[in-house]
Amino acid sequence: MKIKWGALVTDGRGKIGGQVASKNRSGAYMRTKVSPSNPQTSFQLAVRAILAALSSGWRDLTQEARNSWDNAVNDFQKTNVFGDVTTPTGKNLYTRLNAALSSVNESLLTTAPSAAEVFEAVVSIDTNTAGPTDLQIGVTGTNAAMTYQVIATAPVSAGKSFVKSEYRQIGVMPAAQPMPYDISSLYTAKFGNTIVGKKVFVKIVPVVILTGQQGVGTTANGITA
User: Fold this and answer.
1) Which residues fall within 8 angstroms of residue 11, CB to CB, at 6 or more apart?
2) How far apart are CA 70 and CA 94, in angstroms?
3) Cβ distance 168 to 178 under 8 Å?
4) Does the reported pTM lie above 0.85?
5) CA–CA gap between residue 215 and residue 203 (Å, rounded)
6) Do residues 122 and 139 lie in contact, with contact meaning Cβ atoms separated by under 8 Å?
7) Which residue ranges form the domains of the chain, and what is each CATH number?
8) pLDDT by residue (tens digit) across 132-163?
């Protein structure tokens, strides 16, 4: 649970005592935490396996390698949900960067890299091409130093706009691909065909190949015609 303290609590994120604190366009809110009937999904198990492997990998590093991560943390500070700058531990940095590299099938790092610039990529979606099995995206701002997580939702109601918990990674888009990029096979392998009249959300998250730094994900959505 993350809390922003003022004269009283002014903001919060996370879970505490059966409640979840978050924020949407209307402001901060709390709701009752709802646990899924089967939390052991294949996606969750895969993520846990990666994190377990990275935890083991950290222990297996030489002390010199661990020192390199500890000494690099100030170059990889991030801004949290409250707008405050935070500094990771060496182990957290090792895990964060290598988890991102693992998600795009790149080689893992044993020593800390030098921080690189992360270029923003903007995604658009075309759902009006050749029917329910044809789904293409356009991405501007691609860079040869990047590869991209392709994340999407199953078909949802055309009136739905909040899908934060429904995104799933469906594949990887290599750097500097000709556009538009056809994600039909990736999408159908994960969710099946799109459905006419339903909305599909797609998110692209850039990852720097040599460092594992992730950029901000950009999203687009469209209703299948």
Assistant:
1) 3, 4, 21, 23, 28, 81, 82
2) 9
3) no
4) no
5) 12
6) yes
7) 11-36 (no CATH), 42-103 (no CATH), 122-223 (2.60.40.10)
8) 557 889 998 888 899 999 999 999 999 999 99
